[in-house]
Amino acid sequence: MAIHGLGQLDKTYDGSKLRIGILHARWNKEIIDSLVKGAHDKLLEFGVKEENIIIESVPGSFELPFGTKKFSEKWDKQGKPLDAVIPIGVLIKGSTMHFEYICDSVSQKIMDLSFELGKPIIFGVLTCLTDEQARQRAGLGGHNHGADWGLAAIEMATKFDL
């Protein structure tokens, strides 16, 4: 099974003036930690200053949409708005319909938040059928999609002069 990243950039992006939030779920800690590290390291690679990468957590992926909204609003109220937010979670199919309901709800609301908040909210939720798929996509034996999400946050926050 091939797992690829974003592909070629259309130009070089400078993240040095950006403030990026990463809000992560705490379920599946090993996978989440790897995805957060991938996003964090890519943000640094493209010039985002360490002090401008704000990382917080919520219990699980279902809490990511509400948490992302409140996380963004908190920093807006403090006069230190985030230019983009990367909610990071992982959902792995089990033996019940729980997976389908959570995937659908979380995916739809994260997409809606970009429009509601007027800033890029990057879809950083793995929706996998097996633990092995999640590990591969988290860079634990394959490509780390967290790095793609970090780069997508920089591109989206700079490309359209947000």
TrEMBL record:
Identification of the protein by name: 6,7-dimethyl-8-ribityllumazine synthase
Species name: [Candida] jaroonii
